[in-house]
């Protein structure tokens, strides 16, 4: 599965969570976007495209609250708490594992979908990758599982070449 396809799927999943009606905007679910980076984060564009493919268009059928740390990662906890306090139905966290961790600390009930390049187990986002527990799930571009496989392949290639025989 390609990265963009997966991000698109994340967008659809975040939009599909059960949504409670709001007094002023009964038809529009509110989704929070929390980023450790800036508004030009390509994951946000992919997220919005995924929402659009799922039939959700920003400002028409879904409302989105954005919070950007612009590289000032110490601001993430306050930004995440602010989003959780606004009653968002899901949080899309991007721009490093710090955004996902801040969202996880801010709420144990709001669904959190993260995208990052770190090991989600080592960073504390999830306890296991195959079936994350709780309210946090997402995609990691970290390829630790491939390390042992690459080493095994290298051993086989060296053994076949006879270089060290």
Write up what this structure looks like.
With about 160 residues, this protein is an alpha/beta fold. It has a single domain, classed as Rossmann fold. It has five helices and five strands. It has a five-stranded parallel sheet, sandwiched between helices. The relative contact order is 0.15.
What is shown here, in short?
This protein is α/β, with parallel strands linked by helices and 165 residues long. The chain has helices at residues 3-16, 42-53, 76-85, 97-106, 146-161, and strands at 30-35, 63-68, 90-94, 112-116, 136-140. 38% of the residues lie in helices and 16% in strands.
The name of the CATH architecture is 3-Layer(aba) Sandwich
The overall pLDDT average reads: 80
The helix content is: 25-40%
**Backbone shape:** elongated
Q: What are the main properties of this structure?
A:
165 residues; Rossmann fold; single chain; five-stranded parallel beta sheet
Secondary-structure map:
Elements: H1 3-16, E1 30-35, H2 42-53, E2 63-68, H3 76-85, E3 90-94, H4 97-106, E4 112-116, E5 136-140, H5 146-161
Parallel strand pairs: 1-2, 1-3, 3-4, 4-5
Helix pairs in contact: 1-2, 3-4
